[in-house]
Here is the input.
Amino acid sequence: MSKVLTLSAVIMCPHGGTVILAAGRTKLTVDGTPTVTPLDMIGAPIVGCANVAAPAVPCTAIVTVLAGQSINLMVDAQPVLLDTATGLTNGVPPVPWLVQSAGQIKLEAM
Here is the structure.
């Protein structure tokens, strides 16, 4: 079982940039904090990416969710994301974003 992501999750690019989660699914919350689905991740901004040496381009947004979606817990017809989630940023070259913390320790899913 993996922890369900909430808006309090800490998600980063490998260059130290932080993903800013702004939307969430209020129909399912953990301690009042909305959970996160792939729709909430796509386009989420990244601030503070240190990938600046040319010809590299800093990560500024999430472009894909490739793994870590629940197979048994859905909200608004979307699977919630788990602490195993990953995908790609828009940096050049594209790199995977990683979950550092789910933002909660109470709700788990598969």
The chain has a mean pLDDT of 96. Residues 38-41 form the longest helix (4 residues). The beta strands are 2-3, 10-12, 18-19, 25-30, 33-35, 46-47, 67-75, 78-88, 96-101, 108-109.
